[in-house]
Amino acid sequence: MVEQGGRHSRVVLVPLPYQGHITPMFQLGTILHSKGFSITVVHTQFNSPNPSNNPDFKFQAIPDGLSDDDISSGNFVDTIALLNVNCEALFQECLAQMVKQQDPDDEIVCVIYDEMMFFSESAANQLKLKSIILRTTSAATGISRVALLRLKEEGYMPLQDPIMQDPVPRFHPFQFKDLPISKFGITENYLQLIINAYNTRTSSAVIWNTMDCLEQSLLAQIQQQYQVPIFQIGPLHKFAPASSSSLLMEDSNCITWLNRQAPDSVIYVSLGSAASTDKKELVEMAWGLANSQQPFLWVVRPGSVNGSEEIELWPEGFKEAVEGTGCIVKWAPQKEVLSHDAVGGPSFGDQRVNAMYVSRVWRIGLQLENELERGEIEKAVRRLMVDKEGEEMRQRTKNFKEEVKLCIGEGGSSYNSLNNFLELIKSI
Fold first, then answer.
1. Where does this protein have coiled-coil stretches (predicted)?
2. Using the 8-state DSSP alphabet, how is residue 202 labeled?
């Protein structure tokens, strides 16, 4: 345990209940636990985590008030807004009870909450507890979201097709098409969510799951705008001992399949934990991959294809065409997959900002500019996996890997930032 003036220290974590947010929050909790802190996770009933995956943590569920229709709508903006309305009083009540019942030798020192669960700050403030924000996205995504607010003020909304290829004024290297527009458009609810998420209010610090070697200038720009310290301590999974926070059952058979493939030969395709597609796009992706004749690992999450049952997903003849070449699973242990020697072409295409940085700034991947079409997919896969262009991308990726090692190694920027963050918590 970490001693704080003769007492132990407990940190309360409040994750947003989506996989891409739960995982880094639990990684942060694992890091803190390894440094001696006790961890309590306060979570919603929606996408409730499995406590057995993290037996060293305590878990406390609060009702979230979401209906089946709220959850199935796929409108993440409205769902997150509802969570912040429905959970605030219940979280404050839960936190007050925890403070009342806490052991004097194991007192709560701070609340760390996901940027989208901003109701947590008010509750912590009412109980005179310090709060800290965890941002799970890139710094570039943060800046691009703020750009949307500026563009709204300057009368650019709604964005029109004729300007989508134009550069965004004062936000180089973004073009309008790169901005993080939700599938429901840039609604007032979305803009208000951005305002709430990026307002630090009374929180003491911001943790960012990124690193200097990728986003140094962006982080410096952000720090100038903040009155509180920023700690860039990514990639969090490199500091955290191995643990699982997956909401879905992982199919480890794909690792056995990868073990049989040649180094740098497999393209990994995944829509992630929240994005969805339709049957037409799935068919185009399927034949694009098949026609490329390159080995692929494809994650097709249950329910990720709109309006289709699993039994009718695949076009006739597809599975026979890719037998021995492709491996299709419902969910994969992504960290193991991405670090596997056989994987030569990860796909990061479900987020506009990430896709732009991967393709145009870091130049370690390709972005499909137009709608998904099998011929374009086939050409992109071959460019990435066969052509010299792809070989150069993989070399740049390996160079980044070495830079990341320096960031997280002793004396590196992420290593030092993590230590500075731990000192901050100890001083609270």
1. none
2. T
Q: What angle do CA 379, 144, 15 make, to 5 degrees?
A: 95
The residue type found at 36 is G
**Distances, alpha carbon 17 to alpha carbons 43, 121, 227, in Å:** 7, 17, 28
Distance (Å, whole) CA 340 – CA 165: 36
**Cβ–Cβ < 8 Å for 40, 10:** yes
The model's pLDDT over 173-232, given as tens digits with 9 standing for 90+, comes to 999 999 998 777 789 999 999 999 999 999 999 999 999 999 999 999 999 989 999 999
DSSP-derived pairing of the beta strands 266-270 and 343-346: parallel
State the architecture of 252-386 in CATH terms.
3-Layer(aba) Sandwich (3.40)
Mean pLDDT of 301-326: 81
Which residues, 6 or more positions from 120, have their beta carbon under 8 angstroms from its beta carbon? 14, 91, 111, 113, 131
- Give the Cα-Cα-Cα angle 78, 82, 84 (nearest 5 degrees): 120
Alpha helices in 266-412 (DSSP H): 279-292, 318-321, 334-338, 352-356, 374-385, 388-408
Measuring CA to CA, which residue among 152, 140, 154, 134 is closest to residue 221?
Answer: 140
Phi and psi, residue 20, nearest 5° = -65, -10
**Helix 388-408 × helix 374-385 angle, to 10°:** 60
Going by their DSSP bridges, the two strands 230-232 and 205-208 should be labelled as parallel
Tokens representing residue 270 in the block: 């995944």
Work out the angle at residue 379's Cα, subtended by the Cα atoms of residues 374 and 380, and round it to the nearest 5 degrees.
95
The per-residue pLDDT for 272 is 75
Contact yes or no for 42/91 (Cβ under 8 A): yes
For residue range 236-275, list pLDDT tens digits in order: 999 987 666 777 788 888 999 999 999 989 999 887 776 7
Rounded mean pLDDT of the chain? 89
Instruction: Tell me, yes or no, if the pTM score tops 0.90.
Output: no
Any idea which residues carry the catalytic annotation? 21, 114
CB atoms within 10 A of CB 338: 13
User: Do 8-245+407-427 and 252-386 fold alike per CATH?
Assistant: yes
